[in-house]
Amino acid sequence: MGQGTIEVCRLCGGAAGPFRVRRALLEPFGIESLQEAVRWPFHRDGLLTAFACAVVLWILGKGGPLGAYFGFSIVLAVCFHVTRLTARGEDTLRDAGDFRGFFEDVIGPIFRASLAAVWAYGPLVAFLVLRHALPQDLSRGETAVAVLLLAGGIFLFPMALLAGALSSPLLHALNPVVVIGYATRLGRDYALLAGFALAISLFDSLVLAIVTGLDQIVVIPDVAEYTLLLLPALMLFRAMGLLVRARGDELGYGGDSSYLVPVLGRLRPMTELR
Which of 78, 136, 256, 272 has the largest CB neighbor count within 10 A? Predict the structure, then answer.
């Protein structure tokens, strides 16, 4: 019948399975995870992914606004794929994933991102509509409320975007029970991700301003510009995947057993009986 290796207890001879605990305990999400997310796009896979996405944006952008729309949505689909692969434990982007359909991989990603963006600006816009006022017409107290609503929306935006990246039902991105509930459940780890997302957004804006300024002095190819702007985005989607890898069981992503790891890691018994 062949031969193999079975781990057994030396005392009773029974099968000895490794003790397992939740990955979040042994490999928690933290500053080191964010540092790894910042480094990841500068590996071979990350650089090639950013360059390939930049080429897609450049080519489809030649087709006018509609082509640019499709190109941006396809790039978002790749970014979502990075999050899902990272959540499953992959550290390399071995493929671009299977093409599931026109809506799922061409229109769906930007639609999901648009729904997530409602959290960033929706509360503020709703407040202004209810007050029948423009921002400059608000009183000091109303301005404070508006600022808090904007800050809260920006804080919750990454959670809604993460729901879209994990291919959750579309309405989950707008469901307060999902977005606010999951953000509360993840607590400090989510706050760390939200702060990282804000920093990435500001950094990407800075890169865009620098590139735009340099473009007035020396011509920068569009592909190079897009590649530079996509690197911070890949950092964010990698960080989102690392958070799910550690605590995805609390988000209902995958079975609980997928988040159990051996306490002793790769350590194996030192005694072998033949």
Answer: 78
* Cα distance between residue 45 and residue 213, in whole Å: 29
Look at residue 219 and tell me if it is in a domain.
yes
DSSP state at residue 88: T
pLDDT at 236: 94
Model confidence pLDDT, tens digit, residues 145-197: 888 988 888 999 999 999 888 877 777 788 888 889 999 999 899 999 999 99
Please state, rounded to an integer, the average pLDDT across all residues of the chain: 85
SS3 content of the chain, % helix, strand, coil (to 5): 70, 5, 25
- Number of Cβ within 10 Å of residue 155's Cβ equals 18
pLDDT (0 to 100) of residue 36: 93
* CA-CA-CA-CA dihedral for 267, 269, 271, 274, to nearest 10: -120
What pLDDT sits at residue 272?
66
Domain count for the chain: 1
Q: Which amino acid is at 109?
A: P
- Asked whether residue 150 is domain-assigned, the answer is yes
